[in-house]
UniProtKB/TrEMBL annotation:
<feature type="domain" description="TM2">
    <location>
        <begin position="93"/>
        <end position="139"/>
    </location>
</feature>
<keyword id="KW-0325">Glycoprotein</keyword>
<protein>
    <recommendedName>
        <fullName>TM2 domain-containing protein</fullName>
    </recommendedName>
</protein>
<dbReference type="InterPro" id="IPR050932">
    <property type="entry name" value="TM2D1-3-like"/>
</dbReference>
<dbReference type="GO" id="GO:0016020">
    <property type="term" value="C:membrane"/>
</dbReference>
<dbReference type="Pfam" id="PF05154">
    <property type="entry name" value="TM2"/>
</dbReference>
<keyword id="KW-1133">Transmembrane helix</keyword>
<dbReference type="InterPro" id="IPR007829">
    <property type="entry name" value="TM2"/>
</dbReference>
<feature type="transmembrane region" description="Helical">
    <location>
        <begin position="88"/>
        <end position="109"/>
    </location>
</feature>
<feature type="signal peptide">
    <location>
        <begin position="1"/>
        <end position="22"/>
    </location>
</feature>
<keyword id="KW-0812">Transmembrane</keyword>
<feature type="transmembrane region" description="Helical">
    <location>
        <begin position="121"/>
        <end position="146"/>
    </location>
</feature>
<keyword id="KW-0732">Signal</keyword>
<keyword id="KW-0472">Membrane</keyword>
<comment type="similarity">
    <text>Belongs to the TM2 family.</text>
</comment>
């Protein structure tokens, strides 16, 4: 009988806590409890205007009507940092790399565009490794397995075919 009374008290205390004022910060809400507004996209780089060096962006979000949280301003919105939402420093265009690989890849132009100059020259003087390296590079660049030599990501359309790497 005693454990049932304890469970009843715990459940009643949880109901009282949920009905009280907010005790959770807005930035710690579950993704189903808030809605973020669209953010401005730079037409040249196709990245968010607020893209920072650690590849995160700042967006303004509103919590759901029934959710109370700490950190809202007078308009009922809060700023949230979304990690890995942009590619800061991306300067090589993905579409250009794919098109160069398809049409001029057997001359090594795609590798030179990506920054792999020695391999580009080898492909140039061997006609794409007798067209074998040409086909391999088309597949590698299309699947985004071969990126720019400096380690940055491709600059691509905001709603383009982005690959998420799982490590």
């Amino acid at each position: 009988m005693r454990p049932v009374t304890f469970q009843l008290l715990v459940s009643l205390s949880l109901i009282v806590l949920s009905a009280s004022d907010a005790t959770v910060y807005c930035i710690d809400l579950d993704s189903t409890q808030y809605l973020c507004k669209n953010y401005a996209v730079d037409p040249i780089t196709q990245q968010s205007v607020t893209c920072s060096a650690n590849n995160s962006i700042q967006v303004m979000c509103e919590s759901a009507d029934h959710v109370k949280c700490i950190g809202k301003d007078q308009f009922g919105v809060f700023n949230k940092t979304i990690p890995d939402a942009c590619h800061y420093g991306a300067h090589i265009n993905y579409t250009t790399a794919v098109l160069l690989s398809i049409f001029l890849g057997f001359f090594g132009i795609d590798r030179i565009y990506l920054g792999y100059y020695a391999l580009g020259l080898i492909k140039m003087f061997s006609l794409g490794g007798l067209f074998v390296f040409w086909l391999v590079d088309i597949i590698l660049i299309s699947l985004q397995l071969l990126g720019p030599a400096d380690g940055t990501d491709y600059a691509m359309a905001y709603y383009g075919p982005k690959v998420q790497r799982i490590r």
